[in-house]
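Subject: two folds for Thursday's group meeting

Dear M.,

Sorry for the delay on this. The cluster queue was jammed most of the week, so I only got both jobs back this morning. I'm pasting them in the order they finished. Each block is the input sequence followed by the predicted structure tokens. Could you check whether the formatting survives your parser before we put anything on slides? The first protein is the one we discussed after the seminar.
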Amino acid sequence: MRSLLLATLFFAASAQAQSIVAEGPWVAADYEVSGQWKITRHGEQLFVELGDDFETKNGPDLHILLSPKPLTQLTDANASQDALVVGLLQSSDDSVLFRKMKGAQRLTIPSGTRLADYRTILIHCVRFSHLWAGADLNLN
């Protein structure tokens, strides 16, 4: 009986385990960005995760976006067109703009999002329509 209970718990935990859907390095547009990004799935929920090694120049209103356009077609002017805004990046020092933004962050992708509809992940300053960096989504 005990081994059945342990097996049940193991399979229940495995069903809720994180899986990586996509991952990669950033490609600079106007600013260097270091560190890796990944999109993970926990059950039915998707997340964008930045690691402890994430670092870029701070700026106002930096968001993570998913775009249906390939990275080679994106510019400051069109980066947010038809894009899904995942969320606002948090600065490690909100009191002073234009210092470093760094460290791990986790943003929830809205429920019901079909990743197959998107080709790139972006860091974009929405307020000033300025493309920071991006990467192609190579879905696993």
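Second protein, same layout:
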Amino acid sequence: MSTVEHINLLETKLVKVLDFAKQVIAENAHLKTEVELYRKQLTELGEEQSHIREGVLSLVDRLSQFEELLSKDNSTL
């Protein structure tokens, strides 16, 4: 194989490596964007879960108050 052929082969392989590197960089950027979206969704779900928990605790408290009211009414009968 001549020197020119070696250089051409090296150039071909280098172009392939650079193309692959570009693909990896693009995929990495895409994955970073997806990770950021998932983090945002996770934060929103956590906030929603806190809101639901607060609502449930409020309902439990109201039910307890209602039970107390009922038990007071029954004890006076």
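Two things I noticed about the second structure. The mean pLDDT is 94. The helical segments are 3-76.

Cheers,
T.
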